[in-house]
Amino acid sequence: MSILDHIEFSVKDAEVSRQFYERALAPLGVRRIITVPPANTCNGGTRHGFGKGYPCLWVHDRDIPGKGNHIAFTVQERALVDAFYHEAVAAGGEGNGVPGVRSHYHDNYYAAYVLDPDGVNIEVVCLVACEANT
Predict the structure, then answer these.
(1) How many CB atoms within 10 Å of residue 20?
(2) Most buried in the list 12, 19, 32, 114, measured by CB within 10 Å?
(3) Domain tally, the chain
């Protein structure tokens, strides 16, 4: 069981970010679980919660987006790292590191990085050892 319950950060436009994350995270089995309308939030912005049955990633607008934020998702197959990268870029993200082994971490650290519409660095990593030809 993870000690992480959820991550939340501010974005410029909750609708733009909703569209990005719905598409970029679909290959990982992550979907939008809930949307909280402005009338039900403290700051009058929209909140979208994403996850696999439970909203563990939240984005909201009506606040100042923070640069330098980083989120890493873990998967068990390198093909999911590749699928994330391609979908995230197709959804409007900016490539920030193509899928590949990051041997400066270790020989099984296979990851890809994409900047979301607000510049948040999103990583998907597979730490599972694979055959050399996969």
Answers:
(1) 23
(2) 114
(3) 1
**For helices 14-25 and 78-90, angle between their N-to-C axes, nearest 10 degrees:** 150
What is the Cα–Cα distance from 127 to 93, expressed in whole angstroms?
Answer: 23
**Residue 134 belongs to a domain:** no
Q: How many CA atoms lie within 13 A of 100 on its CB side?
A: 7
* pLDDT given for residue 105 in this prediction: 85
* pLDDT value at 7 more than 80: yes
Cα pseudo-dihedral 58, 63, 67, 69, rounded to 10: -20
CB distance 111 to 102 below 8 Å: yes
Which amino acid is located at 69 in the chain?
N
26: left (phi over 0), alpha (psi -120 to 50) or beta: alpha
pLDDT score of 5: 67
0.70 cut: is pTM over it?
yes
- What CATH number is associated with residue 66? 3.10.180.10
Tokens read off for 100: 């590949």
Mean of the per-residue pLDDT values of the chain: 90
